[in-house]
Amino acid sequence: MEFKLPDSLASAPLGVILKSFPIPAKVAGRLTATNSIIKQGQLLRIKLFPSESPGFPGDWVNLNILYEDDFTLVVNKPAGVEVHPSTQGQRGTLAHAVAAYYEASGQKCRVRHIHRLDKETTGPVLYAKNELAHYEFDKAMREKTIERIYMAVAEGAFEQRKGKIDKPIGQDRHHSTRRRVSETGDPAVTLYEVVEYFAGHTLVRLRLETGRTHQIRVHLSSIHHPLAGDGMYGGTRRYIHRQALHGERLIWVHPWTGERMEVRAPLPEDMSKLLDDLRNADSE
């Protein structure tokens, strides 16, 4: 990236100049050390996009890309695909698909996912295309300024139309992949709002204040409203054969412009069919 400096900064030290750009000191220091920032008179050249290898071998599939620019990629993850390998040598994850997309589109970017979704959960996954974006997104995750909003079909009828589930979550010592509410677990907060009632089920919209593994699944099960299809946490599979959980919206701040960004992911076919089946059952 090339910038023409105003006269007021033309003779200023590089450190002073960089403070006028949205580049964190840690990233600026690394760019300076690798000669990726060069000042020539009133021109400042910043190499924010060095050539990088993806870090994963590519597995080509058609990606549903919800948003993309020089800093950001947002992919709509389908059910049945893991975001990142969970075992050594595993292939076929979203990381491998993104690696193939970068290679096919001539983008020399490392695959950097910012958050995860469960294997059977659908919805947007955010990727950073360079170190600056990665730094800013990680910071935003820690400061809870990246919003993730979900739609879910839970069993039973919620008594309150809005509520907050504030229960710590820890690992189940009897099951390596299962989580449970535990006093010694990590803090976890989920907000919910009822969207639609059915006979025996409720469509709810959920917002995460924390991002614990299986958080929504554990929290809803803990209040006796497991997700439809979620056999691990008490849901039945009469209407759907995976947990009925979908990332509806992702909201973040652009790492360079500071603009508020938002993407929406349409309901996948199996959840749309689930809602149709429940509505039809109500009308019978």
TrEMBL record:
Top-level enzyme category: isomerase
Active site: 118
Single GO MF descriptor: pseudouridine synthase activity
Domain of life: Bacteria
Keyword match Isomerase: yes
Catalytic reaction equation(s): a uridine in RNA = a pseudouridine in RNA
Keyword annotations: Isomerase
Domain Pseudouridine synthase RsuA/RluA-like: 73-222
Keyword Isomerase tagged: yes
EC number: 5.4.99.-
GO BP, sorted A to Z: enzyme-directed rRNA pseudouridine synthesis
Family: Belongs to the pseudouridine synthase RluA family.
Protein name listed in UniProt: Pseudouridine synthase
Species: Paenibacillus oceani
